[in-house]
Design goal:
Number of helices of chain B: 13
CATH class of the largest domain in chain A: Alpha Beta
Radius of gyration of chain B: 22 Å
Strand content of chain B: 25-35%
Structural class of chain B: alpha+beta
Largest sheet of chain B: 8 strands, antiparallel
Helix content of chain A: 25-40%
Number of strands of chain A: 20
Oligomer: heterodimer
Shape of chain A: globular
CATH architecture of the largest domain in chain A: 2-Layer Sandwich
Strand order of the largest sheet of chain B: 14-11-13-12-16-17-15-18
Number of domains of chain A: 4
Helix content of chain B: 25-40%
Largest sheet of chain A: 7 strands, antiparallel
Chain lengths: 491, 396
């Protein structure tokens, strides 16, 4: 066995050099999980190619030797999708960090898969616009997952990442014009490219969100769109969650399309106040943050409409701001909220589901009640405008019963969401975490069709097998694992 | 014992089970099922002579109006769908002719000037139901606006030319009908000028929700519009004038008109109507900032050889050119557009070829993803039943 591993490592070193292969057990521990520590597996090695050619050669070497391949960006995923189970080699794109071009006139940037989301956005924003015709005008790659300072564009594409802006601007797939991907046989395929349209079925759309199970994305053509310059931010406090959720539903129904609508419950407000002292009312039952952006001339009218809807739903306090600094501080607090949960619970598990927005009021109550049935406290902070709920289940990781109840409650919550027309994941993906729920979401024919698609790309199951859809070759059982400490990090 | 299918017949299916039965029978009898749509009959290689044509149901199943989401049968025409949505003051923000079915719009990735403000079908489509070549009833996506469960087959099917399965139902986002539509018409000496200013225009406060370029008897016109509240539309229109004075004084606003969404849609349809009837029609997909230059070169070429109608979407790099061309002119146009597309890294596709030009390949040279598409076709339609040979060549 050791000799076989050494053969693999030597072959990989021939491709990427000694510095491109990590095989020290102590260092490999850093790659044993992503943001879902319940799913752990130490890889045999990690290989760090620097270009598509090296990725293709590594894949050929590993496939020929029958070694499972797992692609990985910066490991910020939340579903165990980039973890090796039962031996295998991680192909990391983290050294493919070249921003190859930023073409403002064609509104496209071509980047290596390992370029960080924020790094691309900083580079694009610094360039302004081609003519500089608009003061403060700028372009950007719109997807903004909370992990954007660390997560890679390749990872964003592979998981079809979401974020706070998706309500108005869409998820990652809407901003990817094309990808270069290395398939299981080492072939390099380019879909789309710098053009807005193509011929035939939308392969780019299929590859986005395929969680690295169909191939390894090595290069991405990113669509650049206008960054907003004018904002109004509303924060409204309500006596209860139902009123806040109803407000979201009413804003959606009114036809106004905010950039984002985020809700947190009373418990989260208290936690955030403890941690950051922003000045929210400690006694509020819910807080709704709404941001609208667009043309300055129409913002005040839209703001008025949003404020009116908040009032009609019983908002106890509605404040709004147009000041950039105040706005930035509000969103900074929102993005740091998850880090503060440790103040009220040793451990927590964040779920990710999506429900029709008109059903938010009843859904939040039902989810909280499900937690109660399992003896668990549930708190909420989520992308309400998308119907993307992130219930946070609070528990003690050293209590094996607690862990079991969290797993059971999570499953019940997701099943409930599916039952009202929702989905088991809005933005985190399936990975290994929700593999067992796929059959509750999709009929057997659809599951078989997914299997056929996987087989068309990767007939031998070389790449990220056992993720997204079940595999006969590898089974990953998460239930019953104790010591769970799930940091979440939703949206 | 079911009756044998008569070849070249039209079959109406009311339920998924009926489509499944039809697919099973066609599989057994090796009879292809063909659906090229109303407006795309001439796109791609022609269908095999013996085939079955399927007609699908034409109803809105559910309009979740408070969610701005609608679930519709794929045989529903755009006219019928828009009429249904209008009752709730909503519309489907896509440029498609009234007589096209939703299924046709999806499988041909139909889009137009509105894409600037609302995206294309891949941005609007939330879920699909279709029968695949294994006679399976596949349900992908759903009715939520965010969903990353499973492979995104919903998007895969957009533009698939009806080759991967028979879509019988779709779920889509809708939008609220705007209070005001302000349409603006500009004249421009040379379309190349647009290439330089489009990005700045879109990034500025005068970015429109739709933008199109048309050639009319050697005169170039730009049509754009603002949707929203009256005051906002007017403010944008005024700002547009200031923007143009400063950065593109050669663009002149000829007309500004406050109108309704219906009237605006009719005008957009009217401007693209010629494409439905022209005997020769070629589409170029080019880098965005090459759109104007490509239009200009086509126009110059036309002055030497023939008369061409040209329209383009400068924000999305799409150019259509066509006219009443004879075979000789069409061959020359093919050579010219092929070279033009290659010179800017674009693609050319023939939507309609005049008689005597069947030797012209309707598709651009094979790209690296063609082999992958062929494998997918085999996985999803192993008996090569759906629109066989239209674009993808069956795997041997």
């Amino acid at each position: 066995m050791a000799a076989a591993i050494e053969t693999v490592l030597n072959r990989l070193r021939e491709v990427v050099g000694d510095e491109g292969v990590l095989a020290d057990r102590n260092e490999l521990v850093a790659y044993e999980c992503d943001g879902l520590p319940i799913a752990k597996g130490v890889p045999t090695a990690v290989v760090f190619p620097t270009d598509t050619g090296q990725v293709a050669e590594c894949v050929r070497v590993l496939a020929k030797l029958g070694v499972p391949i797992v692609p990985r960006g910066s490991g910020t995923g939340l579903t165990g999708g980039c973890v090796v189970f039962g031996g295998g080699v991680i192909v990391s794109t983290s050294r493919m960090t070249r921003i190859e071009s930023i073409d403002l006139a064609n509104r496209v940037a071509v980047v290596g898969a390992g370029v960080r989301n924020l790094a691309l956005n900083e580079a694009v924003a610094a360039r302004g616009t081609p003519m500089g015709a608009t003061e403060g005008g700028w372009l950007r790659f719109s997807p903004d997952p909370s992990s954007q300072s660390a997560s890679t564009i390749g990872g964003n594409a592979a998981t079809n990442a979401g974020g706070i802006n998706t309500l108005k601007y869409g998820v990652t797939t809407s901003h990817v014009l094309g990808v270069e991907v290395v398939l299981a046989d080492g072939a390099v395929v380019r879909t789309g490219g710098g053009l807005c349209d193509g011929v035939g079925a939308d392969l780019t759309g299929l590859l986005c969100g395929s969680e690295g199970t169909l191939g390894i994305i090595t290069r991405v053509w990113c669509r650049l769109t206008a960054g907003p310059r004018h904002f109004r931010t509303v924060y409204a406090e309500f006596g209860c969650m139902r009123e806040a959720c109803q407000t979201v539903s009413d804003v959606v129904a009114s036809g106004v399309v905010p950039t984002s609508m985020e809700i947190m419950d009373g418990q989260m407000i208290g936690v955030i106040e403890q941690a950051f002292g922003y000045g929210f009312s400690a006694g509020a039952g819910a807080l709704l943050l709404i941001e609208i952006d667009g043309v300055e001339a129409v913002l005040d009218e839209q703001l008025e409409s949003v404020v009116r809807i908040c009032g009609a739903n019983g908002a106890e306090g509605v404040r709004h701001c147009a000041d950039a600094q105040e706005r930035a501080e509000l969103w900074r607090v929102r993005k740091r909220a998850f880090g503060a949960i440790g103040r009220i619970s040793r451990s927590y598990c964040t779920q990710d589901a999506c429900v029709p927005r008109s059903k938010l009021p009843e859904a939040i109550e039902a989810i909280t009640a499900i937690g109660g049935r399992y003896g668990l406290k549930v708190t909420h902070i989520f992308h309400a405008g998308d119907g993307n709920v992130h219930p946070i289940l609070l528990f003690d990781e050293d209590d094996a019963d607690d862990v079991q109840r969290v797993l059971a409650a999570s499953e019940a919550i997701l099943e409930y969401c599916v039952s009202i027309g929702g989905t088991i994941t809005g933005e985190h993906g399936v990975g290994v975490e929700k593999l067992h729920l796929m059959e509750k979401m999709f009929n057997s024919a659809t599951m078989a069709a997914f299997g056929d698609i996987k087989a068309a790309f990767d007939p031998d199951g070389c790449i990220n097998d056992g993720k997204l859809i079940p595999s006969d070759r590898i089974r990953i059982e998460l239930k019953g694992v104790t010591g769970m400490n799930v940091p979440g990090g939703a949206g | 014992m079911p009756k044998p299918l008569t070849e070249n017949t039209t079959v109406t299916a009311n339920q998924p089970a009926q489509i499944i039965e039809l697919v099973q029978r066609c599989t057994a009898q090796r009879t292809p099922i063909v659906d090229y749509g109303h407006a795309h009959k001439t796109l791609g290689h022609p269908p095999p002579p013996d085939h079955i044509q399927l007609i699908l149901q034409n109803n809105t199943i559910e309009h979740y109006d408070r969610d701005l989401v609608v679930r519709v049968e794929a045989g529903t025409t755009i006219a019928k769908l828009q009429a249904t949505l209008k009752k709730s003051n909503q519309f489907l923000p896509i440029d498609a002719h009234d007589d096209m079915t939703l299924g046709e719009v999806i499988t041909h990735n139909v889009f137009g000037p509105l894409r600037v403000g609302f995206g294309a079908m891949r941005d609007l489509l939330l879920g699909l139901r279709y029968i695949d070549g294994h006679s399976r009833d596949i349900h992908v996506g759903g009715r939520t606006v965010k969903n990353v469960a499973g492979y995104d087959v919903t998007r895969l099917m957009v533009g698939s030319l009806g080759e991967l399965g028979c879509i019988y139902e779709a779920t889509l986002r809708t939008s609220a009908i705007p209070q005001t539509v302000l349409s603006v018409e500009l004249s421009i000496d040379t379309p190349r000028r647009l290439d330089a200013i489009t990005t700045d225009l879109l990034v500025s406060d005068v970015g429109p929700v739709h933008l199109a370029l048309h050639a009319q008897a050697n005169h170039w016109r730009v049509h754009l519009a603002y949707f929203g509240h009256t005051a906002g539309c007017r403010a944008q229109s005024n700002a547009l004038e200031t923007f143009l004075n400063r950065f593109a004084p050669e663009l002149k606003i000829d007309r500004t008109q406050e109108t309704t969404l219906d009237q605006d849609a009719q005008q957009r349809t009217r401007r693209s109507q010629w494409r439905r009837h022209t005997p020769a029609l070629v589409k170029l997909i080019v880098p965005l900032a090459a759109t104007g230059a490509v239009c200009r070169q086509l126009s110059q070429w036309a002055t030497t050889y023939t008369t061409l109608q040209i329209d383009a979407l400068p924000a999305h790099g799409r150019v259509f050119a066509g006219g009443d061309l004879d075979a000789d002119s069409a061959h020359k146009l093919d050579l010219h557009t092929s070279q033009l597309a290659a010179s800017v890294g674009g693609l050319r596709i023939w939507y309609a070829r005049p008689t005597g030009t069947q030797s012209i390949d309707p598709w651009p040279p094979a790209l690296t993803d063609r082999a992958t598409l062929t494998k997918l076709k085999h996985a999803m339609d192993p008996h090569n039943l759906f629109n066989p040979g239209r674009f993808i060549t069956a795997q041997q």
